Amino acid sequence: MKPIYAIVLAGDSEDHKIKRGSVVANKAFVPMNGRRMVDYVLDCYTAVKELSGVGIIGPADELTGIDGVTHIPQKDDLITNVKAAAEVFPEGWLLLSSCDIPLITPEAIRDLLSRCQGADMYYPVVPKEDCQRVFPGMERTWVKLADGEYTGGNIILIKSSKVPIAAGPAAAFFAARKSPMQLAGLIGVPILAKFLVHKLTINKLEEKMEKILGITCKAVLTPYPEIGTDVDKESDYNIISAGLKEAR
Questions:
Q1: Among 1, 109, 173, 248, which one is least packed by beta carbons within 10 Å?
Q2: Total domains, the chain
Q3: CATH code, domain carrying 59
């Protein structure tokens, strides 16, 4: 599975308010212990020797000229940005990453890559017990399936050549994510019903996503909650800032 390029998505401008009294124009630039949040994420990926390169999508005035990182001009929306990354790196794989997981480590990335086999796209999920073991005081959104309770990661690994195939369906899915009625129309009432009564399995969810996206998909269990530990609110900010200080 080579080459693999990490792509940090730093074009977000919606979730401005993270820390009380601090508002930034872009979530990637929230200050944490004297650095921008995105810098911790970039440090991780540039340290992973298994990667063939690192790219970042976001405002050029903030992100051009970073050593060892290719800047990709920001487009209008998330899906268009991913398509742009696939055009820059058309061969191999894209490791798509959010910019707000500053606790991510090279060990977590290497472990994830070692678990990815036999599909076109992979999405990491973290068991609840692993999240609570490492971050007992952090609130997460849990998805209860027949297999257990999980939280999703903030990374997707996808074959670059499959991005154009999955882009259209992914855009529709992304647009419907906050509307139960629209989601029901996309995933089907039987699947939604199983989900609501916690009877849906990971395998069934994989099968449904394959039908929606038109590519083979696999959920990958990872014991590294750092993959899904993002900064969405002030309590997250406080816990993660403290974790970064301890790691130094």
A1: 248
A2: 1
A3: 3.90.550.10
